[in-house]
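Entry 14. Ran structure prediction on the chain below.
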Amino acid sequence: MAQPIPIGMCINPDKVAELAPGYDYLELTVSGTLNPLEDDVTMAPSVLPLRNLQPPVQAFNVFVASSVRVTGPEVDLDRVRTYVDRAVRRAQSVGGKVIVFGSGGARNIPEGFDREKAWAQLVQFCNICADYLQGTGVTLAIEPLNHNESNVVNTYLEGVRLAKDTNRPNEVKVLADIYHFMVDSEPLDDILQAPEWLAHVHLADSGRRNPGSGSYPLQRWFDILREVDYQGMASVECRWGDDFAQESAESLAFLRPLAGW
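Output, structure tokens:
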């Protein structure tokens, strides 16, 4: 029997006390909670307490601040390397296993900039990340974003292409977020074309509300994950109403059976 898929929550640290019990892990933000724009001495008092959060921190998203460009004429590779170095070290230090690279503001291709050159810059960025990730046990998960949020890497298979072009499979893979699939009407079965590149999953429901509140095909989503013997985690990333504690409890109760618990 396949192992159940751990269910986590994308959350700010100040909301953890309101989270319903039973989630397996937390997913925090890099740019907000680890803030690699600041040096280690400045950030230590904020980063160290993250080790004690329960459930434990195991993933990070919102990787690259929009001011740290990774495509276009303003890319500063020294600044990028410093940022990635700090992010990876801090993520690992608090238990992170996955860093999600969505970061539309940092990666969007500027108007008029050569797309092939921008793609090469994305490959270069992923290779820089892989250099710092090597041997840490932390994986970079490229997040395809829908066309409203990014003008590059919009589908799971485009994410796979970027991961393949980077060619660092031990460090760089791909995320699948059902919200972005649904917004752009991407077939869920695209995952079946390259399941070996899937490293992380994000969950939501209709209108990007909490799972169980809408009509997204989450049963089929989890059927696909079981079909490909997915070994990773799945984080709820959505908008909440007025009662976070109650809604997070309802979502967990909805997701647990789908995830094999």
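The mean pLDDT is 97. Will compare against last week's run tomorrow.
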